[in-house]
Amino acid sequence: MKTKITLLGLIFFVNTIVAQKTTIGSIERLDPKMDQYVPPGTKIEVLAEGFDWSEGPVWVEQLNAVLFSDVPTNKAYRWDEKNGLSVFLDPSGFTGFAPREKKGGLNVMNRDESGSNGLTLDHNNQLVLCMHGDRRIARLDGWDKKSFTTVVGKYQGKYFNSPNDLVYAKNGDLYFTDPPYGLNKGDEDPMKELPFNGVYKLTDSGELSLVVKDLTRPNGVAVSNDQKTLYVAISDRSNPRIMAYDIVPDGVENGRVFFDGNELSKNNVGSFDGLKVHPSGTVFSTGPGGVLVITPEGKHLGTIRTEERSANCAFDTKFEYLYMTTDMYLTRVKL
Questions:
Q1: DSSP character for 16?
Q2: Does 101 fall in a domain?
Q3: Rounded CA separation 157/238 (Å)
Q4: What is the pTM of this model?
């Protein structure tokens, strides 16, 4: 007997298959202590999909939602359990504030990087964004508004490259990284005004200082719970690693490799990008293979293997979930 397949039936079949893709990847456990963070049997959930390059998630308690960037489309999205996905900001990172070769231009990775990247909350629970296209860090003027106020836009009279990620210390100091990813030609871009790719500190009183200038691709940044260590993820494919620095009153010192990813990168996709610190002091860092779970001593406990390249991650307020921006997906795992 022949079965007649109608177009409507085929569409229903395809949609059913797509709808079933609610989880991806797996949990790699290299040490039994990994179970303390990601319980056995935990799945990686796909919450939303269809993005060009998702980035910079932050949990906002007052919205009961996670916000994140889609850098190439110049948008920021909101996802919450009740309403699902919606556009939160458009534009999110390029408004014409700073000179740029052209809107929508492709960079050396054949990708537009004009939108927002890292997102965080300041001490007044206001959203602060790394705006790639505008080459500045800015504050959203209000949750119901779509305008921005510049927090910092230049160093010694020169525009930044493209602020990428940021973190507030408990004393109000803002640390942020400034690689050239938002410039169409990277380090060779004629619009690049600074000869280095720096890590900066902006004090609560508005004093800006360059604290690290010898890194090729500083990316994600985080501060340890005791406020003594600054972590900086290096997304240099020729030497992928996480650096650690002692925080001192006038900057940082004693730079050293906290975690070396050269061996992992040989057989795994992804670079060190965003990282967050768990209340235990354990570091959750995107990197080769997915999101690595690393003790304060630098021991690799395991990896949340997301299949796709993961850019960044964020905990919710209660540390019950880890949200991950995973290339075209927004994903999460229950902790």
A1: H
A2: yes
A3: 32
A4: 0.91
Count of the separate structural domains present in the chain: 1
Parent domain of 284:
23-334
307 inside domain: yes
Neighbouring CB atoms inside 10 A of 75's CB total 20
Say which CATH number the domain at 105 has. 2.120.10.30
Strands in 241-248's sheet, in edge-to-edge order, are 218-223, 229-234, 241-248, 251-260
Task: Give me the average pLDDT of each 10-residue run along the chain (335 residues).
Answer: 41 37 93 98 97 97 97 97 97 91 50 87 97 97 92 98 98 97 92 97 96 98 98 96 97 98 95 97 98 98 97 98 98 98
Residue 3 included in any domain: no
**8 Å CB contact between 155 and 194:** yes
> Which single residue is written with the structure tokens 């001593």?
297
Strand partners, 232: 221, 243
Nearest to 195 by CA among 152, 149, 161: 161
Residue 214 in any domain: the answer is yes
